Amino acid sequence: MAGHSKWANIKRTKEAQDKKRASTFTKLSKDITVSAKLGESGDVNFNPMLRVAVDKAKAASMPNDNIQRAIDKGIGVSADSSTVVENTYEFYGPNGTAFLVDTETDNPNRTITELKTMATKNGLKMASEGSISWQFKEVGIIEFTVTANRDLDEIILSLFEIPGIIDTVRKEEEKKILVKTERSEFKSVFDSIKKQFENEIKIEKAELAKVTDALVDAISVKDRLEELEALIEENQDVVNIWTNYDFDI
């Protein structure tokens, strides 16, 4: 019995690891597909979002065939003939919080039914189109770690010489800098940062994001909001979640 129990534990552990790995690959595939689509290119040399997404996938040992399929899907040359529809759904949460949920699906009826059911069961209220999204603006987000022995203030001063940068946020302890750009200048800013600080930084994130300045202080419902985010992310068709709250206001 002891041997059987040990095997059962090993089997359950392996199944859990396999499930986690599959979930990771699914998320990475979505990131690659969305990056290829939004960046309008399947070439990492011309699409900064895609370059970062592919690097993350390779770091997670995702097979090259999977990576290429995700890229092909993003640029519309996939062997999969199903039509993918993009929709954004809007939800009100507790304490004045709000969610924008971007989806990509071959079955919009299934997606909205699943999201509505999840919302009803968990206290979210679906909002009409535009009720929440008008508060958000699409911008470019680039985050990098400073790997060289450089002063962060010095780097930030240099950054503001690059056209198209709206704002920067520093994370002193982690030696990270987050750069917000105009959407139209995203690629040119990314290329300028790579060229200017080529051997001094490591790019951690490059994406188009929906942000709002009308942030809600949600520290009192932090645990609940994190639960809701996790529930929304469980839907296979969800590609991004954007929110109007912060825990550090």
Automatic annotation (TrEMBL):
Pfam families: TACO1_YebC_N, Transcrip_reg. The keyword Nucleotide-binding does not apply. Keywords: Coiled coil, Cytoplasm, DNA-binding, Transcription, Transcription regulation. It is found in: Cytoplasm. One of its GO terms (biological process) is regulation of DNA-templated transcription. Residues 12-21 have a biased composition (Basic and acidic residues). This is Probable transcriptional regulatory protein KC669_00030. It comes from Candidatus Dojkabacteria bacterium.
